[in-house]
Amino acid sequence: MSQPVFFAVETGGTKIVWRIVDAAGVVLDEGRFATGRPEAAVEALVAAAAERPVAGLGVASFGPLVVDPSSPQRGLMLATPKPGWTGFNLSRTLADRLGAPFAVDTDVNAAAVAEARLGAGRGARAVAYVTVGTGIGGGLCVDGQTLKGALHPEIGHLFVRRVEGDVQASACPFHADCVEGLAAGPAVQARLAGRRLEDADEVRAVVADYLGQLVAGLVFAWAPDRIVFGGGVMSTPGLIIEVEAAARRRVNGYGSAVVMGEGGYLVAAEREHAGLDGAMLMAQDLAA
């Protein structure tokens, strides 16, 4: 009889990645495929399991979805523009097909867990993870547990005060002044008009200001010991330092500034596949 395995899945807007490990954490199989209809995704993932007994399934998902562990709708996808996904519960459907217990969280919350336990957040009690790419998302891990309310954090849609003279149209179809609409990848590309961010000081200053406002808000609302940044925009050399400087200006010495220490409060993500790593930790925790 085959030995039990742990199955991790991360669903994204364009691709789904998965990994299977044995009880010792040795990778047995992994893969990826394009995100299509959810029913097709379930069939592909069941095939990937190859009839191996699954001791724990962890799913890190794009949202919005129900993540409350006590809810009978845990894992249910809410309104999303992805065709066929609204009202579908991939986690529960896949778990039922595999006969396995499951844990589900947002991709950014899962990434926060991975960075807190395995990456740039090690040694800190409260770790926030922020990704700045096509969109902006964030999660919080405190003592190994992620922040969940009636839903989950949507920090990319927090409002920021516009930099004086900035008339760039928001890239967000819902909000004219949210940080995602003004500083995520599509907004940055529109500002750059074909240039590189590292070569456009005036654009980088605006982006750093908006992200600094976001960080200041997280300091006031969550007071994390450390904030880990990931995503393509944050790979720009020097940007993370400029964002921290902007955040310190916004906090302006208020008492909450004590959590930021003297420097290096913002750190770059260490895990290349933090969301998938977090999903695997969630799966393994089911057997703990």
From TrEMBL:
Which Gene3D superfamilies does the UniProt record give? 3.30.420.40
Tagged with keyword Kinase:
yes
Citing just one GO molecular function, the answer is:
kinase activity
Listed PROSITE patterns: ROK
Give yes or no: UniProt keyword Kinase: yes
- Taxonomy, superkingdom: Bacteria
Which InterPro entries does the UniProt entry name for this protein?
Answer: ATPase_NBD (IPR043129), ROK (IPR000600), ROK_cs (IPR049874)
Q: Which UniProt keywords apply?
A: Kinase, Transferase
Family according to the record: Belongs to the ROK (NagC/XylR) family.
The protein here is known as Fructokinase
**Which species expresses this protein natively?**
Brevundimonas mediterranea
